[in-house]
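A.,

Following up on our hallway conversation. Structure tokens first:
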């Protein structure tokens, strides 16, 4: 065996790399919609704030449980339409039906109906999101190309966040006066259309790649059983550490990105919610430039090193972010020159570096799947991706409950924060803790986990060389 032989990579065309991450954009569109689902639950189904938050947390546990089951189904699938394409279509259809039922048909029918429809939505969401993590393994295994997923995904996410924030704060909120049921219904239709378009492009990228020749070492179907989950958890150190890093981040970022927290920051503490929509547009280009720089580093030095470096930067600029709110009067941000300029600089860099540290995890899941094939001979990307999601969702499930109880502590027991509500010292520090303090804690956990993550650039080169030799045999 010639160990110096360079592997012949399954490389992708640029348009395929650019289009496949749109599958994540599609599911993110539904995710952004559901970030506001508490407003629908309270206003449309008559559920109390804390109860609604607790219900959403409980359903997240169901969400986590469905992950391994659906991952198992994906790994066992080897139809003439591929392994991943049927699952993407199935996921989108189920989500669309559930959204229409939740936002239109079930209004006024109470908590039980809300929960049942929400559980149906979760099944569809899991089918499609699982394919983002597992399907990338058959698009390319080239270590120079995989970081490009991060680049495209992070840029799409920034564009999406910018447009959604402007849509909600500069269009929906002024149009309806508040985030009521009618506003949420219009948001739902918009999400279904945009997610559908993105799904079509993602399937097109997979069309010639989702074939047995690109499934691990060329097997048509993985010989896998439920007990293999235990083996993966015990033996795959890479996925263990990646789960720790990503799940702690996810818990913190889900809480920080909660719609109520965003309204507390920009609609109450700063007192200028329309500035939130404009802010995303102002910082978009500089943030994209930071993402381009970060993914270039990942191409040269590996995803692990890029994740660590940009996580440290995320911590630094989160601290500076808090300092801006302490040093300057927050109500002057957006109106006075000096605090606005300083805030824009910090926010711009912070947005860019945290986008890299969170989005680079997705191609690292593909690395963990290749490592499992290298370690055991099993091609089980569905299992690896959904096992990752299982633990990730169990931990992040607490985010909505954390936010709900903290809001109740400052007086929001039966209503949610609305633009223009009065601020206070207690509200300010609670918001800073959730918006920036929790992410810092999550990032510290990520840096510790990465010390034990074995897949640096040299190890991945060894893995791909070995797998290429097995395929040739």
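Then the amino acids I'd put at each of the 473 positions:
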């Amino acid at each position: 065996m010639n160990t110096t032989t360079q592997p012949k990579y399954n490389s992708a065309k640029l348009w395929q790399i650019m289009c496949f991450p749109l599958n994540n954009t599609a599911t993110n569109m539904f995710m952004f919609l559901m970030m506001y689902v508490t407003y629908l639950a309270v206003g449309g189904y008559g559920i109390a704030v804390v109860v609604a938050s607790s219900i959403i947390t409980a359903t997240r546990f169901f969400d986590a449980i469905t992950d391994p089951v659906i991952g198992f189904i994906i790994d066992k699938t080897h139809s003439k339409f591929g392994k991943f394409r049927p699952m993407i279509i199935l996921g989108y259809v189920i989500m669309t039906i559930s959204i229409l039922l939740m936002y239109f048909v079930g209004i006024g029918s109470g908590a039980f109906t809300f929960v049942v429809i929400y559980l149906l939505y979760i099944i569809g969401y899991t089918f499609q999101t699982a394919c983002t993590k597992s399907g990338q393994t058959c698009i390319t295994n080239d270590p120079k190309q995989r970081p490009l997923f991060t680049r495209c995904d992070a840029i799409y996410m920034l564009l999406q966040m910018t447009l959604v924030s402007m849509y909600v704060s500069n269009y929906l909120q002024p149009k309806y006066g508040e985030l009521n049921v009618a506003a949420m219904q219009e948001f739902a239709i918009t999400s279904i259309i945009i997610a559908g378009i993105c799904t079509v492009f993602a399937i097109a990228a997979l069309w010639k790649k989702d074939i047995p020749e690109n499934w691990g070492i060329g097997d048509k179907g993985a010989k896998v059983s439920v007990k293999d989950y235990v083996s993966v958890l015990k033996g795959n150190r890479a996925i263990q550490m990646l789960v720790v890093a990503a799940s702690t981040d996810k818990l913190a970022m889900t809480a920080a990105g909660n719609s109520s927290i965003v309204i507390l920051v920009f609609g109450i503490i700063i007192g200028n919610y329309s500035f939130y929509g404009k802010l995303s547009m102002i910082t978009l280009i500089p943030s994209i430039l930071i993402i381009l720089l970060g993914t270039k580093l990942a191409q040269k030095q590996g995803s692990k090193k890029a994740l660590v470096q940009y996580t440290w930067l995320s911590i630094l600029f989160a601290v500076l972010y808090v300092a801006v709110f302490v040093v300057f009067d927050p109500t002057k941000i957006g109106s006075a020159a000096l605090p606005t300029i300083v805030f824009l600089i910090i926010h711009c860099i912070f947005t860019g570096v945290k986008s890299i540290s969170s989005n680079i995890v997705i191609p690292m899941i593909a690395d963990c799947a290749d490592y499992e094939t290298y370690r055991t001979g099993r091609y089980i990307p569905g299992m690896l991706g959904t096992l990752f999601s299982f633990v990730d969702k169990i931990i992040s499930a607490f985010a909505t409950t954390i936010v709900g109880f903290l809001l109740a502590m400052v007086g929001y027991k039966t209503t949610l924060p609305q633009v223009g509500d009065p601020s206070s010292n207690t509200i300010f520090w609670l918001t800073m803790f959730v918006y920036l303090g929790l992410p810092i804690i999550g990032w510290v956990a990520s840096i510790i986990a990465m010390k034990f993550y074995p897949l640096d650039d040299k190890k991945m080169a060894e893995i791909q060389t070995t797998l290429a030799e097995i395929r040739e045999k």
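The chain is about 75% helix and 0% strand. Curious whether your intuition agrees with the design.

B.
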